[in-house]
Specification:
With about 425 residues, the chain is an alpha/beta fold. The protein has 17 helices and 15 strands. It has three domains: about 100 residues, Fumarate Reductase Iron-sulfur Protein, Chain B, domain 2 (Orthogonal Bundle); about 170 residues, 3-Layer(bba) Sandwich (FAD/NAD(P)-binding domain), CATH 3.50.50; about 140 residues, FAD/NAD(P)-binding domain (3-Layer(bba) Sandwich), CATH 3.50.50. Helix 14 links the parallel strand 8 and strand 9. Bound molecules: iron/sulfur cluster.
């Protein structure tokens, strides 16, 4: 395959208007919709599909917006087969409604047509700082701005979006879609301060001094885990998240091809078998690896990646080694990886690789917590939060949500947790304002 940026073009095609309305008309508008029970944020799925079936795009969008600030993204990256679509009554007959594609259609239509937005309240209820602009941060910011809070998002990167911008590959989630979705959050009156590392350029205490009533930490899990085996420091052993980040900015013409940690023709291995591993494997194929093999210590049935991602990877030529654990990385005299030594079902083996990407999980960085007093974390660095007000840390006025609290999950689960925290923040700020009077 020749390596061009078009190799990363989005795989799943959008519906045309006619296709979307025809699909919507198939929905039975069930009285007790099982699809809604399968949705972590309980989107009113039959409600929006019904509006769509009548051609009422704006109403369909308003219904979706009651629960989601990021529908164009969820419509693309949610594991629909496990959630809404997998629960649709028509699914068992092989005729499940394509809910994800319909959600995506409505969101894209709304963006492309720039439909008139809802009337927004004055921002008089208080001032909230949000740290991190991934799915959790954007959700909290969107929810609070809609409810009349003045919200500022601080992010360490040049572009907002966190994992949406720098982690999920272009062929699954085009950056243009993420940018448009973020523009909509901005249009709700949210301010973005970029290239700002909280804990370095500014601390949580300084944010309170600046007059923020509450602060939300939604920084996710930015530290990838290492594999503690001999040879782990060899050149050629790289984190998957680093590959994905570099390819993402290469696709945006921000760096040269040489900066991407993969030379065309390399024999690539990916250790781990979750969705990040699938993203790294499929990205390596697109960047010209001669072969890509996913190495997983458990069986196919134990694989955490969603089925559709796995099947796509297989279709694209990714190979899988099951029940195979790496016990050593082997290098040449130049200190570059040449093989792994692994325990396999056939016994111990040396398997040649030029490049290994690690995708064995991640954990929270501690920059914010270590520069702020009073925020307790557990032994693994996850922030401890309360039930009342929901999501508040052990430090008054500081809240946290998403992966930094709940361990890495899907985009929609980070959103679900963040929605509850947004309600907790609103309650807290209203209460302190009342006491102030
Ligand atoms: Fe429509 Fe399926 Fe939901 Fe029923 S379960 S309302 S058919 S999407």
């Amino acid at each position: 395959m020749s390596i061009t940026k078009s190799t990363f073009r989005e795989i799943n095609e959008s519906y045309t208007i006619k296709e979307a309305i025809d699909e919507a008309k198939r929905c039975l508008n069930c009285k007790n919709p099982s699809c809604k029970k399968g949705c972590p944020i309980e989107n009113d799925i039959p409600g929006f599909i019904h509006q769509l079936s009548m051609g009422n795009m704006g109403d369909a969008m308003s219904i979706i917006n009651e629960k989601s600030n990021l529908p164009a993204i969820c419509g693309r990256v949610c594991p629909h087969e496990k959630q809404c679509q997998g629960h649709c009554v028509l699914y068992a007959k092989g005729k499940g409604i394509q809910i994800g594609k319909l959600e995506r259609f409505v969101a894209d239509f709304d963006t492309d047509m720039n439909l008139i937005r809802e009337r927004l309240p004055q921002k008089t209820r208080g001032k909230v700082a949000v740290i991190g602009s991934g799915p959790a941060g954007l959700t909290v910011a969107g929810d609070l701005a809609r409810q009349g809070f003045n919200v500022t998002i601080f992010d360490s990167q040049e572009e907002p979006g966190g994992v949406l911008t720098y982690g999920i590959p272009e062929y699954r989630l085009p950056k243009a879609v993420v940018r448009k979705e973020i523009k909509k959050i901005e249009a709700l009156g949210v301010t973005f301060i970029l290239n700002c590392v909280v804990g370095k350029q500014i601390t949580v205490d300084q944010m309170f001094d600046m007059g923020y009533d509450a602060i939300f930490i939604g920084t996710g899990t930015s530290l990838p885990k290492d594999l503690n085996v001999p040879g782990a420091k060899l050149r050629g052993v790289v984190q998957s998240s680093y590959l994905l980040h570099m390819v993402s900015i290469f696709n945006q013409n921000e760096i040269n091809r040489d900066n991407v940690p993969l030379v065309a023709g390399e024999k690539v291995g990916v250790i781990g078998c979750g969705n990040v591993a699938m993203d790294a494997a499929r990205t390596a194929i697109r960047m010209g690896a001669s072969s890509v093999t996913v190495i997983y210590h458990r069986t196919e049935a134990d694989m955490p990646a969603i089925q559709s991602e796995y099947q796509e990877a297989v279709k694209e030529g990714v190979k899988f080694l099951w029940e195979t654990s790496t016990i050593e990385f082997l290098g040449n005299e130049d200190g570059h990886l040449v093989a792994i030594r692994a325990n396999t079902p056939e016994g111990e083996k040396e398997i040649p690789f030029d490049r290994i990407y690690l995708a064995i999980g991640s954990r929270p960085a501690n920059r914010i917590v270590s520069t702020t007093t009073g925020i307790d974390v557990d032994d693994n660095g996850y922030v401890i939060v309360k039930e009342r007000p929901y999501g508040m840390t052990t430090r008054k006025g500081v809240f946290a949500g998403g992966d930094v609290v709940h361990h890495p999950k899907t985009v929609v689960l980070a959103m679900k947790a963040a929605k509850q925290v947004a309600a907790g923040i609103a309650q807290y700020v209203d209460a302190i304002k009342l006491l102030d009077i």
